[in-house]
Design goal:
There is one protein chain. The chain has one domain. It is 74% helix and 0% strand. The chain has helices spanning 2-29, 37-43, 50-63, 67-80, 89-100. The chain is globular, with a radius of gyration of 14 Å. The two termini are 21 Å apart.
């Protein structure tokens, strides 16, 4: 199971970098580009289920007690997206759980 999570983690890190780069590039042209995670979902017409995929990944990190990685991923998501419409309480809860473990 840990090998599967590690492979998934590598894919997620590449995905995180691509998303972060895309958001930075988009915000260079339009400061309001993808302020919320749901904006990326809208842009892709919900084809990739980004939110669902991220939720599953964060749950896997939590279940496998990879709290340091969980905290880093949560911090990155909270830093990139405003969270005003999406209200990322689940991300904040997972981060606080990781910090207390």
């Amino acid at each position: 199971m840990k090998l599967c999570i590690r492979k998934l983690g590598n894919a997620v890190e590449r995905w995180e970098n691509k998303v972060t780069d895309q958001v930075k590039k988009g915000r260079g042209e339009d400061p309001d580009y993808a302020k919320e995670l749901s904006d990326l979902e809208d842009d892709t017409e919900f084809v990739h289920d980004i939110s669902g995929w991220l939720e599953d990944y964060l749950d896997e990190l939590d279940m496998n007690q990879q709290y340091e990685k969980l905290q880093k991923v949560c911090d990155k998501l909270l830093a990139v997206f405003a969270g005003e419409e999406d209200k990322p309480s689940e991300i904040r809860f997972l981060k606080s759980s990781a910090l207390s473990s």
